[in-house]
Amino acid sequence: MDSGSFSLAYSIADQSFARTKSLGILNLSLQLAEALSSRSEIQRLEVFSNSSLRERHDKFGGRQVRCFDHACATRLGRILWDQRQVYREAEKRRVQWLLLPKGFESFCRKPRIKVAAYVHDVIGEWYRERYPRAVSRSESWYFRQSLLATLRHSTVIFTNSDFTRRELLALGERHAIRAPDITVAGIGFAQTTAPPRGSRGRIVVLASPLPHKRTDLALEFMTAWQRTTGFAGPVHWVGRFPFGLRQPTDLGWEYHTRLDDCAYNSLIAESKVVVYFSEYEGFGMPPVEAVLAGACPVYSTIPATQEIMRGLGAPFDNSSVDSFVAAMKNAVKMPPSELASTEQSLLLRHNWSAVTDRIIGALKCHRTTA
After folding, report:
1. β-pair partners for 65
2. Are 61 and 38 in contact (CB under 8 A)?
3. Contact 134, 101 (CB under 8 A)
4. Per residue in 214-241, pLDDT tens?
5. Nearest 10 degrees: CA dihedral of 367, 28, 240, 320?
6. What is the C-alpha separation between 268 and 262, in angstroms, rounded?
7. Alpha-carbon dihedral of residues 117, 303, 202, 255, nearest 10 degrees?
8. How confident is the model over 339-353, as a mean pLDDT?
């Protein structure tokens, strides 16, 4: 192995479409694995996976894939994998690095190899303050201890945004933990072939039962906007509503509890606007994904989306229905040329080549450390 290359184990064994709580994190983990597979600097890459992800294995460039189905079969299996076995497997393969794309490390043992973790957010801490009853105490405790272990034991941490980096540093300070080097790696996106923007007429609103996604506010603001403007086009809601929140039947809206990737992409491909509410994100992928699919994103202005979107699309203030109505009006009439310019600007800043450059560079800098 030459001085400029290294070996790496990459673990997605504990992730699956059936059990994940975040399709965004799962898709990011898979896409990052694909992007790293193409890098010649990683002389030996071993992907710890499971059989449910087999359809994606052929995209890993012929790299070694090992399946550990028990890691995602049950909650106990995942805990044992996270806390013990993933380290043992990496050590057994004699790799120099273990990369954990979900960002949580073991609080039961210290690693004997260098570990890099990709942290997506610190939302568990935010939930403890804002929505303490939304997550069970045991789950909240488990993920907090795992995240603190990430701060204590990582050689390097990667984040999706500078906002998440700052959140991690603040968490470390509150717990008197000196954080390791934290590199903002970002998230990559690929250009898609979208149908002509002029043929679109639908509006898609993303819903979620999670409190921070503010589906209640989306319902209130969308109702006000439609009644103010008299919009008569199709409006599709995608995602589950929070328990007890009624879906209006008098506005002509259509509801989709969950769509597979093919059906969802087809729906977005015929949409003019994608509406995205949130109070907290580490990055906020849907506004970027909407632009790349040819739709104008209408999205909450929060620290992460301010950093990632830089005002592109149609941002609004969660505290102002007037701000939302104005954003919707701008989005509906936004010319195709402006959307095309927005797409190119986002792709220049958020692409997998740049992301893997940052990750490879950071790992090389630490390859000789203990």
Report:
1. 47
2. yes
3. no
4. 999 999 999 999 989 999 899 999 999 9
5. 80
6. 10
7. 70
8. 94
**Helix%, strand%, coil% for the chain, nearest 5:** 45, 15, 40
* Cα-Cα end-to-end distance for the chain: 18
176's tokens: 């008197």
CA trace torsion 92, 97, 103, 107 (10° rounding): 50
CATH for the 197-349 domain, from 3.90.70.10, 3.30.10.20, 3.40.50.2000, 3.60.60.10: 3.40.50.2000
Could you give the CA distance from residue 31 to residue 37 in angstroms, rounded to a whole number?
10
What is the crossing angle of helices 352-365 and 23-37, to 10°? Answer: 70
Residue 228 Ramachandran class (φ > 0 left, ψ -120 to 50 alpha, else beta): alpha
> At residue 6, what is the residue type?
F
Any bridge partners for residue 183, and if so which? Answer: 158
Q: Closest Cα partner for 6 from 118, 86, 98, 85?
A: 98
Domain 6-187+351-365 has CATH 3.90.700.10: no
Looking up tokens 């184990």 gives 9
Angle between helices 321-333 and 215-229 (to 10 degrees): 60
- The domain locations on the chain are 6-187+351-365, 197-349
Q: CA dihedral in degrees (252, 257, 261, 263; nearest 10)?
A: -40
The two domains 6-187+351-365 and 197-349 share their CATH topology (first three levels equal)? yes
Q: Which residue has the tokens 């071993």?
A: 46
CB count in 10 Å sphere of residue 169: 14
- Burial, 210: exposed, middle or buried (Cβ in 10 Å; 0-12, 13-18, 19+)? buried
Banded pLDDT at 366 (limits 50, 70, 90): confident
Which pTM was predicted?
0.92
What is the spatial distance between Cα 46 and Cα 222, in angstroms, rounded to a whole number? 47
- Both tokens of 362, joined, read 């950071």
Q: Given the structure tokens 């509503």, which residue do they identify?
A: 241
Triad 109, 115, 117: Cα angle to 5°: 105
